[in-house]
């Protein structure tokens, strides 16, 4: 089943999906309340047996601020489909898909760890890379590259690292990398 | 010509006695049997393993007995990137090592955080435990680790093995002294 067929079927069943094409890849933007239903339909009716990746995105300065991206695949026919689901900072809660693809379990924990996106219905939504009790979400755009000070006694502590205002300090925005990470920023 | 009679010569024991300072003797023993605690955290650990294998042969310096128990080790070789999450584990293992103990920070990451100027990485293990020898390199060659071991051996020979470390014991013996 080709990606175009799959997208047509999904659009037929769920009318309100926004479809974008870029370099032969198809992306469907799904409203938050429909994401689990769409994912379930993809898995059970369309045969997407492999969730390649699930990640969070921080579109700092935009509304809704966060996005969850699902990369789906049918192994047999090598079909690829991307689902995107926007979620605002106020709710910041997305239904889990770990009941459909068990691999989503750790991916969702990572998205929670790095962006603070909560996945409702997740069996074990704890941090996966940082330690329990760490107060920040380090992949958010407004988190400084140098890190922030924190202290969880007997678990871990952090201190901001010495960057000396160096050339790789990023600016918190969702602009292009030229604006965000000016590599040739004059030092000092 | 009068016959030379060496004073107090006993052929049974002469030659089996070495007169030295206790510090020197203890240090000599310590420096030639440094059992490492391999704290291998990243790619430096591969070089550490190479240093222990036959081509480089850390056994020549008495440091081949890698102990995975902190209670049996003398020198902790911190080889690799110390993340904050791991840092407290490293500290805990270090605290369980018996005195006297030493620490080698192997490579750029363990010494200073290296290229990981990151919110998740401790910028040098010396922020948490005292380091005796730093090795540069990313990762250092096995020869560099051997050099660090020899540097550490030299350092150990200069340490007051008894006076500082056994001061409490010496103080308790004072009352028996005339």
Description:
The complex is a heterodimer of chains A (188) and B (178). Chain A has 188 residues and is an alpha/beta fold. Chain A has 2 domains: 3-134, NADH:ubiquinone oxidoreductase Nqo5 subunit (Beta Polymerase, domain 2); 144-188, no CATH class. Chain A contains 4 helices and 9 strands. Chain A has helices at 3-13, 35-44, 104-115, 177-180, and strands at 18-22, 25-29, 50-58, 66-74, 79-87, 93-95, 118-120, 150-152, 156-158. The longest helix of chain A has 12 residues, at 104-115. The mean pLDDT of chain A is 86. Chain B is an alpha/beta fold and 178 residues long. Chain B has one domain: Rossmann fold, CATH 3.40.50.12280. In chain B, strands 1-2-3-4 form a 4-stranded parallel β-sheet. In chain B, β1, α2 (44-52) and β2 form a beta-alpha-beta unit. Chain B is elongated and about 80 Å long. The chains are: A alpha/beta (188), B alpha/beta (178). Chain A binds chain B through residues 129-131, 138, 143-148, 154-163, 166, 168, and chain B through 84-85, 87-88, 113, 117-121, 123, 127.
SSE layout and pairing:
The complex is a heterodimer of chains A (188) and B (178).
Chain A: H1 3-13, E1 18-22, E2 25-29, H2 35-44, E3 50-58, E4 66-74, E5 79-87, E6 93-95, H3 104-115, E7 118-120, E8 150-152, E9 156-158, H4 177-180
Parallel strand pairs in A: 2-5, 6-7
Antiparallel strand pairs in A: 1-2, 3-4, 4-5, 8-9
Chain B: H1 22-31, E1 36-40, H2 44-52, E2 75-79, H3 84-96, E3 102-106, H4 107-112, E4 133-135, H5 142-157, H6 167-173
Parallel strand pairs in B: 1-2, 2-3, 3-4
Helix pairs in contact in B: 1-5, 2-5
